[in-house]
Every structure is written in structure tokens, then in C-alpha cells.
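Extended Data, panel c. Modelled sequence:
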Amino acid sequence: MAKISEKYETMVVYSLKNGEEPITALNEKFTKLIKENTELINVDEWGKRNLSYQIDYERDGYYVLYQYDCKPEFPHELERVLGITEGLLRFLTVVREDAPPPSEKEKQSKQEETPPTSEE
């Protein structure tokens, strides 16, 4: 059965090479795209941070986290658009962890897979 809606997070690291004005424009562009196609829950701007390693000879990036609820098809389209956009260093989309708890069948199957411990 296909899922109707899922909760996602997309982290985008913007390049600071051209200053902060292009970042504002790109952030507005992606916020608008997400609002038009999903239920936008939150946009969390982490701001300028040091990267763990250089990406395209840059040591700093501007981090923005988008949280939204949508059909499973949209994140693929968003990543396609992100991939062809200039001014981004990295991006990653994941399903959010606050998903509903596992059903009783899933719990039982996990318990059966776990080897019993001997108590002596």
C-alpha cells in the first residue's frame, strides 16, 4: 500500500563564495517551492558554520533545515532542482524520525530475531 504522506527534513548547505544576498534569494526560492508542493512545518536557519572539510575550496557554509510533510514523490523533485542549482555545496533529504511507533507484529518479529540470553 502506497503511503499518502510522510514527514521529511532537507538540510541544505549554501555557498558563501558570493556573499549572503544570493543565499537569501535561494532560501526564499526553495521555501516557496516547498510551500507550493507540501505542508511546510518549519524552516530553521542555522546560519554560517565551519565545514568539517573543504568543499569546493570553501571552509564555511550557510546551513538551512527545511521540515515538511508531503507525498513521497516530492523529495525526488526537490533534490533534482537542488542538484542543478548553483550556489549550493551539499544537501540531504531524510525521513524524519518522529514516525509512529512500530506495530505489535513488528515488535514480536524483532523479539523473535533476538537470541535469548541465558541467566545462570
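The chain has a mean pLDDT of 86. This feature is highlighted in the accompanying rendering.
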